[in-house]
Amino acid sequence: MTDLGPATVAPPRGRAGWRSMLPRWSPKLGVGLGLIAVIALFGLLGPLFVGDPVTIRDLGLTPPGGEHPLGTTLTGQDVLAQLAHSTRGSLHIGLLVGVLATLLSALFGIVGGYVGGVVDEAFSLFSNVMLVIPGLPLVIVVSAFVPADQRGSWTVAVVLAITGWAASARVLRAQTLSLRTRDYVAAARVAGEKPWRVIAVEVLPNLLPLLASQFVFSVVYAILSEAGLSFLGLGASNSSTLGTMLYYAQNGFALQREAWWWFVPPGLVIALFGCGLALVNFSIDEIINPGLRDIPRRPRAEAVREPAPAARTDDDVVLTVDRLSVVYQVDTPVHAVKDVSLTLRRGEILGLAGESGCGKTTLAYAVDRLHRPPAEITGGSVTFHDRDGEDVDVLALRPEELRAFRWSKLSVVFQGAMNALNPVITVRAQLEDVLITHRPGMSRAARRARCEEVLRLVGVDPRRLGSFPHELSGGMRQRVVIAMALLLDPQVMIMDEPTTALDVVVQRGILREIMRLRDEIGFAVLFITHDLPLLLELADRIAVMKDGEIVEHGPAEQVHREPRHPYTRRLLDSFPSLTGERGAFVRSGEPAPSGGAR
Ligand SMILES: Nc1ncnc2c1ncn2[C@@H]1O[C@H](COP(=O)(O)OP(=O)(O)OP(=O)(O)O)[C@@H](O)[C@H]1O
């Protein structure tokens, strides 16, 4: 199933793995790197070409021009020379703090999180204490405590580093706690690797994008904080930085004298450098969470939808999907659903089978418009034929209409949906929530009665309404989700591998329940699975999907006895001796005569 959840950092494997940890080229990254490169070069090489920044001339304040492209200060010192040396000083402190704070946060966050136990508790306590101490006042106190003549750039860097690592350590700890439970980390531990090696080889590479982002953040924090400290007269005494420049400009009443050339350049360099680092940070964020990437906007000429069919051709049809196409607009666009046409009749179970990756989930999401960028519907239509005779063009519904349509006319049960139940809310509250949203006029008593009714329908004791999800078995939770999908008496239910996570016996029980409910209530089901033999037992009609296309479509019996497409034959052959007589197990609950109960 398409993973729409939050992205996690995948373990690096081989060259491709390392390449995936580099930021993708984007205008943001280009501008960010450009700004950083220009300012870094200016700081590195500029001092070699400009004169002495401390030389006092008998010029006083002079505006930019001639010999002094950025003018002079009150004491006749060249602003350009000061700017070049100050940029170097600020970069020096920024880099020192970036490295120190990143090392500290890695030590307390990663080592603590991985080792656990007392070490983690002690490290965590220390990080928390550092976190609640207000940063700037502490920096001011510590800086003021160190005598001015000993307050070099190293001292200032150390002070800033010890006040700026704790938040990053918390983030790294949380990520490490999650990583240490991953199978490949457990495998390395079981294989007898030493803890430092597991951290270095298995854990650290996964945290590199995060560490890089923390480093960038620390550099920005350091440059800005140092500027603040220097502005207050508490900065490094032996070096000039952009902050000291601003401090002297302030002391020389540059603003009042309208000597903009004195304070604007250092302010601008700080702002542009921060801006450059922030832009690079965006690109690093995109490695950690690819979902943040910009989706390239493509011309939508081919995406013009055809209007939905004006009228249904068959009174029995409840859903018509006509030539639906869905494309994932990524670097190399993925045409996941190609011109798919399906009709679903009232009360029928239509099975959609196909191997993993053929586009089943994408289709299920698109039919209910639950797809998210980069997925885009590039053509076709979805029409819902309501009981009352109205035809609804699903792709044309406005957001409000769509909200009302979903769940009450067409509900969806996704693979692993049982895990979607909120663990801290009772089953009753979660069921009632749906009714409160969609049936605001319903009385409390009626809501309760309906919740009990649907639970009974799916074979769960209504006394379980007061339970929390963790108090139910996986099968019961899945039944609760199906009950939730039934609450508003929908005419169509889309079920995407609803029982895959369950053991065979529970799976069979639920499938029998679905068939019984379909017979009792009469809703139609679009049942999606990779398990074709299962559909042979369950579905009335079957559509077989391959590479985004429907390659075969017909009554289940026909698909079973006379599969026309070679792919269908291959799918059937891949489950040779496991398939009993069609329908024997699910429909009657008896094992198949061939002894092939699946
Ligand atoms: N976010 C995405 N970006 C790019 N391609 C994607 C994205 N999500 C899915 N795809 C691609 O779309 C195609 C269809 O995926 P989909 O998840 O719909 O398949 P599926 O048949 O439901 O598979 P499964 O049974 O394993 O869930 C696959 O080739 C997949 O790689």
TrEMBL record:
Annotated TM spans: 29-50, 93-115, 122-146, 152-172, 203-223, 229-248, 260-284
Sequence ranges assigned to domain ABC transmembrane type-1 in this UniProt record: 91-281
Keywords: ATP-binding, Cell inner membrane, Cell membrane, Membrane, Nucleotide-binding, Translocase, Transmembrane, Transmembrane helix, Transport
Keyword Magnesium applies: no
Domain ABC transporter: 321-572
Main location: membrane
SUPFAM superfamilies the record matches: MetI-like (SSF161098), P-loop containing nucleoside triphosphate hydrolases (SSF52540)
Coiled-coil stretches noted in the UniProt entry, renumbered to this chain: none
Membrane topology: Multi-pass membrane protein; Peripheral membrane protein
Subcellular location, record wording: Cell membrane; Membrane
Protein family per UniProt: Belongs to the ABC transporter superfamily.
PANTHER family the record matches: ATPASE AAA-TYPE CORE DOMAIN-CONTAINING PROTEIN, OLIGOPEPTIDE TRANSPORT ATP-BINDING PROTEIN APPD
Name of the protein in question: Peptide ABC transporter ATP-binding protein
Organism name: Saccharothrix coeruleofusca
Lineage of producing organism: Bacteria, Bacillati, Actinomycetota, Actinomycetes, Pseudonocardiales
